[in-house]
Amino acid sequence: MASKDRELPPGQTPIKSILRWGIDHPGITRSNPKIDLETYALTIDGTVENPQKLSWNDVLKLPTFKSTSDFHCVEGWSVLDCKWQGVRFKEVVNLVKPRKSARSASFECADGYTTSLTLEELSCDDVLLAYKLDDKPLEEGLGFPLRLVVPGKYAYKSALWITRITFASEKELGYWEKRGYSDTADVWKDDRFSS
């Protein structure tokens, strides 16, 4: 239970076990994609000056960032005080140098899942590409090897198994957003479904 001075977003209930995540992930498949770190690549392209194709070792060479935040599922449960480690999205921006016309970034995942956010949403200090949770490498069911973490949004915006980030001048709707979920996904406004 949340403490009396700890506010949760509307409609959210804390759960104790992180194990539930392996069942209720926001992907589109029920089996986790098998990713080999020897061949893994993160492609970053689109409306940028410096497109990249990063190996897993390249990802690990980027500046490391640690952040503690709560994780909120659109189904109404929250896991409190998740300790993430990874790369701030701001570092990706610095690396690829989006053009002035870039307004958003789309995320593609190894299971075919997609979502997108505006660059303004991605500029928050606690938004990162995470590869560790609670000081351990991500499990397959939690997005191994790399997932997006956007604490102010419902979890379907925190894409798992990321393989590509594409910057664009126009924002595209992702997998769940095309199926009636809110594109803004603001947890504090209880913004779960499109109107």
* N-to-C span: 31 Å
Order of helices and strands: EEEHEEHEEHEEEE
Strand content: 25-35%
From the alpha carbons, calculate the radius of gyration and give it in angstroms: 16 Å
Number of domain modules: 1
Structural class: mainly beta
Here the CATH topology equals: Sulfite Oxidase, Chain A, domain 2
Mean pLDDT: 90
Low-confidence stretches are: none
Instruction: Report the sheet with the most strands, covering strand number, pairing sense and barrel closure.
Output: 6 strands, mixed
Please give the CATH architecture: Alpha-Beta Complex
Percent range for helical residues? Answer: under 10%
Supply the number of helical segments: 3
Full CATH superfamily name: Oxidoreductase, molybdopterin-binding domain
Quick structural summary:
The chain is mostly beta strands. The protein has a single domain (41-177), classed as Sulfite Oxidase, Chain A, domain 2 (Alpha-Beta Complex), CATH 3.90.420.10. It has helices spanning 56-61, 89-96, 119-122; strands at residues 13-14, 41-46, 52-55, 65-72, 77-88, 104-109, 114-118, 128-133, 136-137, 147-149, 162-168.
